[in-house]
Amino acid sequence: MEKFVIKFKKLFFALRYRWVGWEAFFVALKVINDALDLPFFDDKTFKRKVNKCFNKKWLKCEKGQYFYNFNGALLPQLIDRKDVSALKQVYEDVFLIPCRFNDNYDKKTVEFVDFFVPEGAYGYIDGDFDVSVKTGDVVIDAGAWIGDFSAYAAQKGATVYAFEPEKRNFEMLNKTKILNPQGEIIPIQKGLSNFDGETEIFINGSLSHSTTNNLQHSEKQIIKLTTLDKFVEENHLTKVDFIKSDIEGDERNMLLGARETLKNFAPKLALCTYHLPDDKEVMTKIILEANPNYTIKYMRHKLFAAVI
Prior knowledge:
This protein is about 40% helix and about 25% strand. The strands form four sheets. A seven-stranded mixed sheet has the order 8-7-6-13-14-16-15, with helices on both faces. Helix 2 (about 25-35) runs antiparallel to helix 3 (about 45-60), helix 3 (about 45-60) crosses helix 4 and helix 11 packs across helix 12. By secondary structure, it is of the alpha/beta class.
């Protein structure tokens, strides 16, 4: 009975908040096709259909230029099927609350959404505990990808230092910068870690997230790394208000390289904790050692921290 209730809740959520256009029809068709083991609606066809629904809802055209518009946060058009599928997942974590819940990151909303989306939102408000982007904030976007969260923060009126070391993602990030002049996105083709130097990453897919693991049939790239503390010092930043991080398990090293920033500026933190099994414990220890004044809260795949 409990499993049935959970499935019903997920179906209701998808119908009300996730699926757009004819997407629900295609999902039902795929379920029937797979249940009866029919050859008519394979995975490739299904993804092409649901991606078309997604594009019809969010892809806009102005003066001959196509772009995605998520409540004023603009992203360049994606062509490859895998890229659009990736953006559909990112949409649920970054843009679902701004687009479907009026940008409301209160505890009740975030906890409700967190149960249904892949990784969870990048904001959380519970009384005085407020981890959300404000107008005038200086934001660090570690693992910017094509600039999804950067575009959201820029649309809120923040200045965003967007760190993305992978070359194809960085090219798209620069296009996102041009599309969003209302804030300021400053793309930086480096990764954030606990040392200044270079490392190898392996790219699996087109506009794919990277990994330091050697995956078969993956493209190898040499990327540049720096520490946030060094970047802050070299660029004479007088404040850092918000750090968002999704860097494939290197969040802990980013924090180690940001200890002075955490101590001196106490930025709000929204960090992914699903890459390594001990992410929450390790990151919590680093944060509190750098600044014991932090209050930390956890969601299923996120860590939020703020000094109240």
